[in-house]
Amino acid sequence: MDFSFTSDQENLRTHLQELLGAVCPPEYAERCDQEARPPREAYDALGKHGWLGLNIPTEHGGSGGSAIELAILLEECGRHFEELGMWVFRTMTYGGYAVARHGTAEQKTNLLPRVARGELSFCFALTEPHSGSDAAALTTRATPREGGFAINGQKVFTSGMDISDYCLLVTRTSTSEKKQAGITNFLVDTKLPGIDVRKIATLGQRAIGTTQVFYNDVTVPASAVLGEIDRGWEAVDAYLWYERLCLSAARTGAATAAFDYALDYAKNREQFGRPIGKFQAIAHKLADMRVMLDLSRMLTYRFAWLLDQGKATRHDAAVLKLYTSESYKAVSDMGLQILGGYGYCMEYPMQRFFRDSRLAVIGAGTSEIQRNIIARGLGL
């Protein structure tokens, strides 16, 4: 069993660290959070240098990179600014991966080279006010219309809708006893008439944030269908597995940044005549944080390897999502405790990690849902 990266992968990480260090320094991330504005300059820089095409096949202008290389990219993005990683992963998952896997020849030709060049941004719309954890119970409907479909309904927590060019929209096109049947996916131009986007104020993730979206008789052409009509749920499932790798990598990077900040603080902050890191109560917290980070990285790259080998399972995805999410939350919480009163002050970055990490155990499948999946895999 080989736990090492190739020399090309190590070089990839080094080049990425140099670029992100220049375009996404700590003060830039802090400013984006405080001003509630997306890290567009950093996103555009990644696109300009070809990083958004990492997982796109070479015949469509990408690099044809592996899931392991994708994890490296998202971990480093998350380490510099988690919300940059969130923006990047959505475009690479729902623009790159989804179109490459299920798109028509025309969709691939028209969209993938532009994604690879950083010219397009994508988001994903699944959750509805009455279908959160029960995601397949969605009711947003696409009705056949001459030359295409008319879409009516409401989505919530569509993160990045207001800054994206396309939305991968999950709709219902027919009804059957099995709610996973009759679902169709569309690539929807976010500027179409009839789309009403409303920003939602949130505790964390303020730079990009999330939105509520109303679809009022939105007309899309038949060419906007991604994959097969009425058989889109299996594709959604595949996208969510891929999403869990991306989220876990980015959040492991963010947790690492929180840990590094807390460790540096513990080494330099003195009380009772010595650095607080010399006190066992603080040292043990940092030791526990480091163990969580090591396990999170191991699970992330193990899952990436399994994806590349075609061996990943639903159980593996649930274990990864559960552990990395809970670890990020715990690391951020302990980091804030180590900083004490300063951790509670908005001028220190630990409060941002604390706020942002809380979404990790809620969004994209709650920790409770992940435990249910794992338990079912055990025959319970």
Give descriptors for this structure.
3 domains; Butyryl-CoA Dehydrogenase, subunit A, domain 3; four-stranded mixed beta sheet; Butyryl-CoA Dehydrogenase, subunit A, domain 2; Butyryl-Coa Dehydrogenase, subunit A, domain 1; alpha+beta; single chain
Structure description:
The relative contact order is 0.11. A 4-stranded mixed β-sheet has the order 1-4-5-8, covered by helices on one side. Strands 2-3-7-6 form a 4-stranded antiparallel β-sheet, with no helix packed on it. β2 and β3 form a beta hairpin. The longest helix is centred in the middle third of the chain and has 36 residues, at 233-268. It has 3 domains: 7-120, Butyryl-Coa Dehydrogenase, subunit A, domain 1 (Orthogonal Bundle); 124-231, Beta Barrel (Butyryl-CoA Dehydrogenase, subunit A, domain 2), CATH 2.40.110; 234-377, Butyryl-CoA Dehydrogenase, subunit A, domain 3 (Up-down Bundle), CATH 1.20.140.10. It has helices at 7-23, 26-35, 40-48, 67-80, 82-102, 105-116, 233-268, 280-309, 314-339, 350-357, 367-377; strands at residues 122-125, 141-145, 148-156, 166-172, 183-189, 195-200, 210-221, 225-226, 270-271, 274-275. The protein has 380 residues and is α+β, with helices and mostly antiparallel strands. The mean pLDDT is 96. α9 runs antiparallel to α10 (350-357).
